[in-house]
Amino acid sequence: MKQNSSVGNAYAYAFLKVIYKDLNFSSFTHLVSDMLDFCTLINAYPSIEQFLSNPTYDSKKKKQFLNDFFSDSLNPLIINFLNLLCDTKRIVYISSILVVFLEMLLKSTNSYIIEIEVPRTENYKIDLVKLNLILSTWFLKNKKDAQFDTINFACFKEPLLIYTIKQKSELLGGFRLNFLTESKVVDFSIATKIQKISKVLDY
To answer: What are the tens digits of pLDDT across the range 78-134?
Structure first.
């Protein structure tokens, strides 16, 4: 699997510019849905990515494969984009291009993925309504200007927070927030507090 952030940035940004053109909400949601379906397939079946990223297979074979298996299920814009990657031999970087595309998509729609790490106990509860209110306010106050166009549909004016919950056996209590789209970690776990106290005592 080849990774190249500069290639990923350039092509992901170019594709976002294409889908922004003459955009309406219906076409945008269908395009994004198809792109997410393709990303899901890539993750579920690694052999697809292995074939596309293998430089020993020529572009014609890869384009034929994409058209045979996806032309009826994916939006023509996506098929054309994938064919362009084949023609320019950038399809070998498909993984990094998709990762960057999804990151840009989240930021352009004012969306954020937050992983909540909680203790592995049956009775542990977290107030998501209160947490959502606090974090939404925080994201509004600390929103940075995007380096690319943002989607201006009314439904994207307020931050959209997408939560995933992961149980961690090493957490004694409290919780830890991983802001996956912001590369930030906020630690409210008891284990971390104990570690800090231990360091003070050792000193």
So the answer is: 898 899 999 988 888 888 888 888 777 777 777 777 888 888 877 777 777 887 777
Neighbours of 93 (CB within 10 A): 23
Helical segments of 23-75, H only: 25-44, 46-52, 59-70
- The residue among 102, 105, 97 whose CA lies nearest residue 49 is 97
pLDDT digits (tens, 9 = 90+) for 138-148: 766 666 555 54
Whether the Cβ atoms of residue 159 and residue 112 lie closer than 8 Å to each other:
yes
Phi, psi of 174 (to 5 degrees): 75, -155
Where b means 16+ CB within 10 Å and e means fewer, 13-50 reads bebbeebeeeeeeeeeeebbebbeebbeeeeeeeebbe
How far apart are alpha carbons 31 and 179 in whole angstroms? 26
